[in-house]
Amino acid sequence: MNKKVKPYLITRSLQPENQESPIHFIKNMETPLHYFYRRNHFPYPVLNQYNYWLQVAVGQSKKRYIHLSELLAMPATTLTVPLECAGNKRAKFSTKVYGEQWEDGAISQGEWTGVPLRNLLKDTELTMEAQEIVFEGADRGKKPGNEGLVPYKRSLPLEKALHPDTLVAYKYNNKPLTVKHGHPFRLIVPNWYAMASVKWLQKIEIIKHKFTGPFQTEDYMYYPNKNNNQEKVPVTTLNVNSTIQQPLNYSILNSGTHKVEGIAWTGQGKIKEVQVSFDNGQTWTKANLSSNGDSVYSWIHWSLVCEFNNKGEYTILSRAVDSSGRVQPHTPFWNRKGYGFNAVSTVHVKVE
């Protein structure tokens, strides 16, 4: 009896656990949970009953607590949102950088259900002096250059935090979050790289100053210079991007008709078109785009049927264009920590 062959997550590290989605074989709009990529800075937190309470604080003086049961009773919002690690495709930089050597699979997508953050804060005093909102997860560990155990904490500017689609989510694909993906609740920040979508959320704090934690001002910054920190800027909005899912890189194909297909996404507007080239970018052909329904944020599937009648080696390129006019560049923006890679997707094939 033939058994159905299934892909597996691609392991990058075990402690902490970092694994890629088998993105080249994901055809659905919603990534099944067991194929959702895993990105961790520390070991998984040990959770107890106290983690079902979410603390909301204004400085040190005013605090209140919201239980998961209260969250479940509030009007909910469901959004299809991709989460992409800022280091996705880091392995593709030609001048190599240190860090997890992600290929194409540090991205996954599905339906997130939760309560808009601004609804949780509507009874909270937001004064004119408030500048940012800080989010702290239950995960913590040692970080070079810092004393003791450091929690994973990040902030959002008020405008982004109070956007109606910034959610405190408790479900993924209509099922409760699992521990490996942020149970009991996590932040979901559409259009931003996933470092902003804090898992195992346990505390929300409104502050009157700029937050300067290590995951805010040391990591997740673009450092364009190799030997100094000048001209650094924070990682925020997703770049326009695409990935060729099929054929796989360095495949051997029979001559004839083949489908080139993949996904494209952006953090600004919508994907307007995807172009494919077979002559190293001298000419481009528009691919067919599938509908992503009413989703504002989701990736889009694209495909192009091509004839490979001549034997030989081919280089296939794809580039996405979004509605704000951004186009995938031929050369990526190199930065010391390897964030935001979005150069044209490249696949080499041989036709025999």
Write a brief structural summary:
The protein has about 350 residues and is mainly beta. The chain is globular, with a radius of gyration of 21 Å.
State the main characteristics.
single chain, 352 residues, mainly beta, 2 domains, five-stranded mixed β-sheet, five-stranded antiparallel β-sheet, 5% helix, globular
Mean pLDDT across the residues is: 95
Number of structural units classed as domains:
2
| Rg calculated over all Cα atoms | 21 Å
CA-based shape = globular
Give the uncertain stretches in residue-range form: none
- Report the CATH C-level class of the largest domain: Alpha Beta
What is the helix content? under 10%
User: Hey, roughly how much beta strand do the residues contain?
Assistant: 35-45%
Give the total of beta strands.
23
Terminal residue distance:
32 Å
Reported CATH architecture of the largest domain: Alpha-Beta Complex
Strand neighbour order, sheet with most strands: 4-3-12-7-8
Topology of this protein?
Elements: E1 10-13, E2 18-20, E3 53-58, E4 62-67, H1 68-73, E5 77-84, E6 107-116, H2 117-120, E7 132-141, E8 150-157, H3 158-161, E9 167-172, E10 175-176, E11 186-188, E12 201-207, H4 214-217, E13 221-222, E14 233-234, E15 241-246, E16 251-253, E17 256-265, E18 271-277, E19 285-286, E20 288-289, E21 300-308, E22 312-322, E23 345-351
Parallel strand pairs: 3-12, 16-23
Antiparallel strand pairs: 1-2, 3-4, 5-6, 6-9, 7-8, 7-12, 9-10, 9-11, 13-14, 15-17, 17-21, 18-19, 18-22, 20-21, 22-23
